[in-house]
């Protein structure tokens, strides 16, 4: 991705721990946490780690803008707290799509890639499946174009999305790492290194 350029100005809205220079891909990187999203047309990478959560990556080839969100739970449209609403799928999708529309996109042009929704606590919680059911129904109801998906299973995922090209990489985590992720999700924070390794899988 070329020589090191200054970080996008709006990275300042995130903590220093979330934005950094990624030596692997030679570009600026931004880690998003549950309830966050980011849209850009710059040559950067957006990363996150998912357990039962879902991330949707949307790319518009006509404008060159792309974005990714990260939500924890399915729809709760009646929630009165706007901060906590960002954790829910409906609000997360509205945020992502509305921001892309501000950049000139129309829904018909969006290419969506979906990942996450793992069942991290087998037999105890079905949040992962509920999240998958929500996003599948949302995409169908809104008549959006789903390019690819990698959901379910019992492993966490590291995700990297390149918004200027629409490329998304997914790497399955080890079960030992999953135990840490379960704790992090329950505490609503992420402290692991989101670097992907050589076993990345690209969702075409």
For the sheet with most strands, the description reads: 6 strands, mixed
Number of strands: 11
User: Which range best describes the helical content: under 10%, 10-25%, 25-40%, 40-55%, 55-70% or over 70%?
Assistant: 10-25%
Strand composition percent:
25-35%
Average pLDDT level: 84
Known CATH architecture = 2-Layer Sandwich
Task: Give the number of helices.
Answer: 4
* Unreliable sequence segments: 187-199
Could you tell me the CATH topology label: 60s Ribosomal Protein L30, Chain: A
Could you write a compact summary of the structure shown?
The chain has helices at 82-85, 89-102, 127-141, 175-186, and strands at 19-22, 27-31, 37-40, 45-50, 54-60, 65-69, 111-116, 145-151, 157-162, 167-172, 201-203. By secondary structure, the protein is α+β, with helices and mostly antiparallel strands.
Q: Could you walk me through the main structural features you see in this protein, from its secondary elements to its overall organization?
A:
Strands 1-2-4-9-10-11 form a six-stranded mixed beta sheet, with no helix packed on it. A five-stranded mixed beta sheet has the order 3-6-5-7-8, covered by helices on one side. The longest helix has 15 residues, at 127-141. It has a single domain (29-191), classed as 60s Ribosomal Protein L30, Chain: A, CATH 3.30.1330.200. By secondary structure, it is α+β, with helices and mostly antiparallel strands. The chain is built from four helices and eleven strands, in the order ββββββααβαβββαβ.
């Amino acid at each position: 991705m070329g020589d090191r350029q200054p970080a996008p100005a709006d990275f300042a809205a995130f903590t220093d721990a979330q934005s950094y220079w990624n030596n692997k891909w030679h570009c600026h990187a931004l880690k998003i946490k549950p309830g966050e999203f980011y849209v850009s047309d710059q040559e950067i990478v957006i990363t996150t780690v998912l357990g039962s959560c879902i991330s949707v990556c949307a790319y518009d080839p006509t404008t060159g803008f792309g974005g990714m969100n990260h939500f924890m739970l399915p729809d709760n449209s009646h929630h009165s707290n706007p901060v906590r609403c960002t954790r829910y799928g409906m609000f997360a999708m509205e945020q992502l799509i509305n921001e892309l529309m501000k950049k000139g996109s129309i829904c018909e042009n969006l290419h969506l890639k979906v990942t996450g929704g793992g069942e991290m606590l087998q037999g105890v919680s079905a949040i992962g499946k509920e999240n998958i059911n929500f996003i599948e129904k949302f995409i169908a109801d809104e008549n959006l174009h789903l390019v690819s998906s990698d959901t379910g299973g019992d492993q966490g995922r590291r995700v990297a999305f390149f918004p200027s090209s629409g490329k998304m990489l997914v790497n399955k985590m080890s079960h030992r790492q999953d135990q840490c992720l379960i704790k992090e999700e329950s505490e609503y924070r992420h402290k692991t290194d989101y670097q992907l390794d050589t076993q990345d899988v690209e969702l075409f």
